[in-house]
Amino acid sequence: MLSDTRLVESCIVRMIFGSHLYGTNTPESDTDYKAVHLPSPDDILLQRVPGSVNNKRPKAEGERNIAGDVDEESFSLQRYLGLLADGQTVAIDMLFAPKPVLLQTSNLWELIYENRHRLLNKRSTAFVGYCRTQANKYGIKGSRVAAARNVTELLARELAEKGSTAKVGEIGDALNTLLDPHTAIVDLPVGKDGRVERYVECCNRKVSFGSSIKLAHEIFSRIYENYGKRAQLAERNEGIDWKALSHAVRVGDEAIELLQTGNITFPLRNARRILEIKQGLLPYGAVAEEIEGLLTRVEQASVESSLPETADMEFIDDLVLYAYRRQIFDAYADAPRREP
């Protein structure tokens, strides 16, 4: 095997990440590191480049990090640029990490940053998706709970009247009376022949019109029961994942700044408030209202943003080809010939 030291994976950038980047760290915080690297020439040629490499302490299922724990993840260049093009928060946060948290950098990282206008775009799906996931998880807006309750009660009445074999499609007119921002009747394509199938959707869960009313009632009643339990806990500030909610506020604020200015400021300008949310020091109702407002503001900012619709994929391809080609050439140009 070749033993040339140039075959060691090359670091493009390495940084302190997580709460230490955001400015929300406490004495109990663990330490996260993120990096981007050039894979080894062997892995590039053999097409076995992993998207990322992780180094962290093995933990039992459900066990959280503790003070002193160190988590490190390094993305291959191609994977990192793909995450950036998709608008993933981890990649965008890394792009705007300031010098105080940069432990190692390179000319290639500077090139990526200088061309950020070709990599950033309006694809705020990841930002909006995270906020909405937390909103749905905790039934943050009372109207979601009401929507799930209304659908469940209607299905219960229709089930009692029509029996367990009746189909959802038989009560389409009744379902139409419940339409609101969280309840809809949608048509989705089925297969490749252009056929569509109709669904009732409530709180992001869909049930086909071809399904039985009994099945639909079981599905939506579970959603309502979960919302109800979480809403009751939330009123008492119990059972809430405050860290997850703090992340929802954080990414919502980041998305608005990015979409409006093309930049994200670290440490975060509202780091103190996010830390208060993370520690459960604020009323749940206030946090819920803030997240609901952020959802609306992010979606509006996406519409008004001057960022391009998509990343420059040709530039990304050229950059990866350039970097990988140099990595291979530098390693093998003067290497002794190796026979199988």
Features:
single chain; 340 residues; alpha+beta; Beta Polymerase, domain 2; 2 domains; 3-stranded antiparallel beta sheet; 13 helices; disordered N terminus
Structure description:
This protein has a 5-stranded mixed sheet with strand order 3-4-2-1-5. It has a 3-stranded antiparallel sheet with strand order 6-7-8. By secondary structure, it is an alpha+beta fold. The chain is globular, with a radius of gyration of 25 Å. The protein is built from 13 helices and 8 strands. The chain has 2 domains: 1-121 and 308-340, Beta Polymerase, domain 2 (2-Layer Sandwich); 142-235, no CATH class. Mean pLDDT is 85; it is low at 1-8 and 57-63. Helix 3 (77-85) packs across helix 4 (89-95), helix 6 runs antiparallel to helix 12 and helix 10 (242-261) runs antiparallel to helix 11 (271-278). The longest helix has 23 residues, at 213-235. Strand 7 (195-202) and strand 8 form a beta hairpin.
